[in-house]
Every structure is written in structure tokens, then in C-alpha cells.
Specification:
single chain, 280 residues, alpha/beta, 10 helices, binds pantoate
Amino acid sequence: MNVIDSIAGMHSACAQARAAGKKLGFVPTMGALHEGHLSLLRAARERCDVVAASIFVNPTQFAPNEDFAKYPRALERDSELLQFEQVDLLFTPTKEEMYPLGAVTFVEVRDLSDRLCGKSRPGHFRGVATVVNKLFNIVQPDFAFFGQKDAAQSAVIRRMVRDLDLAVNVVVCPIVREADGLAMSSRNAYLSAADRKQAAALSRALRKAESLYRSGERDPKKLIDSARRIFAEQPEVAVEYIEIADPDTLETLRDLSRPALVAVAARVGSTRLIDNIVLP
Ligand code: PAF
């Protein structure tokens, strides 16, 4: 695995792969890798000749009161996992390399960025869109792989790619879950043993809504109420939102005649977790 920390170095290694006629797959990450990330790398390996990954904890997607400083960093272990997954190129820039002094340009995907997590994390998706756009420019991948767990993020990125005519195919891979249903996330590392038990309520609530849907219920409010009842039994879990939205625009849906994203965000202790399912 070729580990590169400069933009120029990564740009030219990727250009070389493309010039050799290789199909280039890219998995951007913030590190602290788990099975969810590994599933993206495997999807990239299946589809592409050369697999590139990046590890960069992107400061512009964290608000000042958020967990940028304490976000888990595990570069040594991550590198081993990436080598094991036969990643060819690993990009590990510093924040000075990615945002040199005087950088004032941002990418804003309007409207979508203010919905779901964007409501409580103003500026978050602007930071995500900006860094992903920069990474796409550096790597210029044929395919880029993202996890469905961050459903709003993937909608923002898909829209950015469409609106800015970026020549990359975005592939969104299914959520990978722990045995009790908890969606894999780097932030699960923050959970205490007691919090960890409570955290399974998110996927339980979603499954409850899904089973009501499968039994024929088509009123979004009733599905949300059924999910809320699961949380009512779990007062330690503070729900931030449960919403049923269009998976592309993230607008609230009033009926369930088309595919619907059921998305939840909640705090367990001080850890903010998200999860979702798509119906049908
Ligand atoms: O999903 C993530 O890990 C990050 O938001 C991403 C896409 C790597 C951008 O920093």
C-alpha cells in the first residue's frame, strides 16, 4: 500500500493508475475503521482495478461544540486493516495540506443541507460537500463508495455530483450492523457498556416502524408514533428526530406511495447516533 500525504503525490499516483487504463475506486473515510468501512473497501475491490482510500478527520464538518478534538484516531490499526483489504493507495493529508491558510471556497448543496441532521448540525453538510469535492478533484475516481448509514450525507453527495457534473459514479452500500442491530459507527467507540445496551433502541425503533409498514400501515405519522413508543421505554435515549423523508430530496413525506427514508438521530449519554431504513 502506497501511503501518501501530499495532494500533489496523491493526484499523480491516481493519474498514473488512470493512465494505465485502470478503473479507480475511492473510499473516503475519517478513519477509526470498522466493518462498515471494510464493506465499502470490498465493494470497491470487486468493481475496480485500483482501490484508493483516504483518512482525514475533516475539521470543516464539525461545529466548534462538536467532537472534532476527541474523534477517535487510530492510524496504525487503520493502516493494517487497509493493507489487509489490499488497498493500493492511502491518502492521509494534514489539515494544513487540505485547507491552506486563506482557503475561503466552500461547496453548498442548498436545501438538502438544512434537513435531517443538517437541522441540528448547521454547516455540517457544507463541510462534507467541500471536502468530498476536494477529494474527488484530487483522486478523480471512477467510482466512490459511501455508507447508507449516513443517508443524508449520501443524498447531499449524490446531488452535488449531479449539479456540478462531476465524473464519478457514487455507490451507496448497505448499513453493516452489530448482532443486536446497532449500526456500525466510529462513534460507537464512545459508548459506555450501559450506553451500548441502550443504543440498540435506534434500530429496534426502525424495525418496529418497518413491521407496521409491512403489515399495511401507510400513514407516516403512525409509523413515527410506533417508533417513538420504543424510545418511550428507554428514557436514557434522547431522540433528536425521527422523520420519514424522500431519500433524494430529504423532504418530509406526507404519504408512503413511494420509497421513503425513515431516519432517526438520538443521543445516548453524550454520544450522538444515527440510523435509518428505506421502505419498502
Ligand atoms: O462519512 C465520513 O466519514 C465523512 O463524512 C467523509 C465522507 C469521509 C467526509 O469527511
